[in-house]
Design brief:
Low-confidence stretches: none
Helix content: 25-40%
Strand order of the largest sheet: 4-3-2-1-5-6
Shape: globular
CATH architecture of the largest domain: Alpha-Beta Complex
Oligomer: single chain
CATH superfamily of the largest domain: Creatinase/methionine aminopeptidase superfamily
CATH topology of the largest domain: Creatine Amidinohydrolase
Distance between the termini: 51 Å
Largest sheet: 6 strands, mixed
Strand content: 15-25%
Radius of gyration: 25 Å
Number of helices: 19
Mean pLDDT: 97
Length: about 600
């Protein structure tokens, strides 16, 4: 792989010289600003060898660097070793911005022009880069050149997998009703229409699903909404006869995917709303009408689950909990397993459940020191045998047609050190304390984030990833706009939103701990100070009691844990064999 990266960089630099460019920026994205992308758009991975879901590679004629966040510091360091890439750790002191680094690297360059694919970069990304690069000695950004088309031989094509309908019994709201609500929101922003680029937004609006992106049930397309017309831009071979009929009945026109450029040029309304974080720069430049810059109303609508979706989540969590209990019992009794073999076993148990469609992300099974790698994924080279000692961090989830699951459990495989027990219990305290919280309606995730971190902070510990993210309804496992994290996020928390609770601690080369449940935000009463919200725990799976230092738990934390385990037992007991039920009774015994 290292030699391949060297050869690819050589091809890239030949093209840069031919085009009089001094550098090129490779983003982790696609034309729809997706977090996870179809193989065609994995250009950053192809040019760098780093396969994480977040990162930016920048290559000059004489150097290369890759920026990524704390989830991937360890993995990126290992994957970039032996290449010329320098790892840039985001949000760490001393790490330059991309523009600052390019300013230094290109200080003596003859052609101070940097390339980026405008079909991949959002409007906000491009305009920010233009300003920052201009301040670094007048560096120019060129957006009309996709260098990968010339150097990536055998580059995958745009996916053409068939789409399917998401029935009303799972969606809970007709497409026509959603469009009506979107148009009302657009009028409030004084906009006549909008371009929807986000793939999960399109899937939600149309009550359709796809399989174009691994683990994400979305399909590559655009949706152009005007005051009286809706057009879906999609490769028509993706549509079944049923989908064609459904779209016609829903008064949604269909045009070829690449015709979105023509559609924007021919757009007939007075103005159009574009979300600068969602729409790519090249498509923005095609618009001939007045642009209303604003935030898309769709993510917030999608994030607030209707009653049908909420019930779907509850049902999906029961089935997922059954699979998890079967797995945990099997794991406790088995020998000779590895990180990869247990991931395969868990997937097979989930696949036995009704309405199972796929994993919601690739399982993270990290034993001992691998648990300290936040987004670790075992390979044949790294696959570690499990022993009857230490901690296993297992982060996994599934796509069911009525709900998406995301759960992490840290499991004691045998004797633990005092340090492991302490760290486990501190993480558990933060996990519980957040779920005990009652907070004002409309508070943001940033305002409540510290609750989950307080037990760790008190001991001088911290984790650098977010504490929680939204979860889609048979959609992407990461869903916004709300998050629970240290960095400021303006999105308000509202009843009906799903969100995860996943504090952790990661000690490099030793072990990691993370405990995660998916929650539903619910009303929690009203006082003279306004409406308050709280959490309903959706995930149904025992939290390992064996690593707990009970002396560190408060009475309220103990009571929450006992109440939660009582709920897990009651919800799952009718779906288990007698042996499995006995195991569950022991795993959920009160402390």
């Amino acid at each position: 792989m290292k030699s391949q990266i060297k050869d690819r960089l050589a091809l890239l630099r030949e093209e840069l010289r031919r085009e009089h460019l001094s550098a090129y920026i490779f983003l982790t994205s696609d034309p729809h600003q997706s977090e996870y992308v179809a193989n065609r758009w994995k250009g950053r991975e192809w040019i760098s060898g780093f396969d994480g879901s977040a990162g930016t590679a920048v290559v000059t004629l004489k150097s290369a660097a890759l920026w990524t966040d704390s989830r991937y510091f360890i993995a990126a360091s290992e994957q970039l070793e032996g290449t010329e890439y320098q790892l840039m750790r985001l949000k760490m002191e001393g790490t330059p911005t991309i523009a600052e680094w390019l300013g230094k690297e290109l200080s003596d360059a003859d052609d101070k022009t940097v390339g980026i694919d405008g079909m991949i970069a959002s409007v906000s990304q491009v305009e920010t880069l233009i300003d920052e690069l201009r301040g670094q000695g007048g560096i120019v950004l060129q957006t009309n050149f996709d260098v990968l088309e010339r150097i990536w031989h055998g580059r995958p094509s745009v996916p053409v997998n068939k789409v399917e309908l998401q029935p009303l019994q799972y969606a809970g709201e007709e497409c026509s009703s959603k469009l009506q609500r979107i148009r009302k929101a657009l009028r409030e922003q004084h906009a006549d229409g909008m371009l929807v680029s986000s793939l999960d937004d399109i899937a939600w609006i149309l009550n359709m699903r796809g399989s174009d992106v691994h683990c994400n049930p979305v399909f590559v397309s655009y949706l152009l909404i005007s005051s009286h017309r809706v057009t879906l831009y999609i490769n028509k071979e993706k549509l079944t006869n049923e989908a064609v009929r459904y779209l016609a009945e829903s008064h949604v026109d269909v045009a070829p995917y690449n015709d979105v450029v023509k559609g924007l040029r021919d757009y007939f309304e007075y103005n159009i709303l574009l979300d600068p974080d969602e729409v790519n720069y090249t498509l923005y430049k095609c618009v001939k009408r007045e642009v209303v810059w604003g935030t898309s109303p769709v993510p917030t609508m999608k994030a607030i689950k209707n009653q049908v979706e909420q019930e779907g989540f509850r049902r999906a969590m029961v089935r997922d909990g059954v699979a998890m209990v079967k797995f945990l019992k099997w794991l406790e009794e088995s020998t000779g397993q590895t990180e990869m073999s247990i991931a395969d076993k868990l997937e097979s148990l989930r696949a036995e459940q009704p309405l199972y469609r796929s994993l919601s992300f690739d399982t993270i099974a990290g034993y001992e020191e691998h648990g300290a790698i936040v987004h670790y994924e075992a390979t044949k080279e790294t696959d570690k045998p499990l022993e009857k000692k230490g901690l296993l961090l297992l982060d996994s989830g599934a796509q069911y047609q009525d709900g998406t699951t995301d759960i992490t459990r840290t499991i004691a495989l045998g004797p633990l050190t005092a340090e492991q027990r302490k760290m486990y219990t501190l993480v558990l305290k933060g996990h519980i304390d957040l779920q005990l919280l009652r907070f004002p309606d409309g508070a943001t995730g940033t305002q409540i984030d510290a609750i989950a971190r307080r037990p760790l902070w008190q001991h001088g510990l911290n984790f650098l990833h977010g504490t929680g993210h939204g979860v889609g309804s048979f959609l992407n496992v990461h869903e916004g706009p709300h998050q629970i994290r240290m960095e400021w996020r303006a999105a308000n928390l509202r009843a009906g939103m799903t969100v995860t609770d996943e504090p952790g601690i990661y000690l490099k080369d030793r072990f990691g701990v993370r405990i995660e449940n998916t929650l539903l935000i619910v009303p929690a009463g009203e006082t003279e100070f306004g409406r308050f919200l709280g959490f309903e725990t959706l995930t149904l799976c025992p939290i390992d009691l064996r690593p707990i230092d009970k002396e560190l738990l408060t009475p309220d934390e103990r009571q929450w844990l006992n109440n939660y385990h009582e709920k897990v037992y009651e919800q799952l007991k009718d779906y288990l064999s007698s042996d499995e039920l006995s195991w569950l009774a022991a795993a959920t015994a009160p402390i």
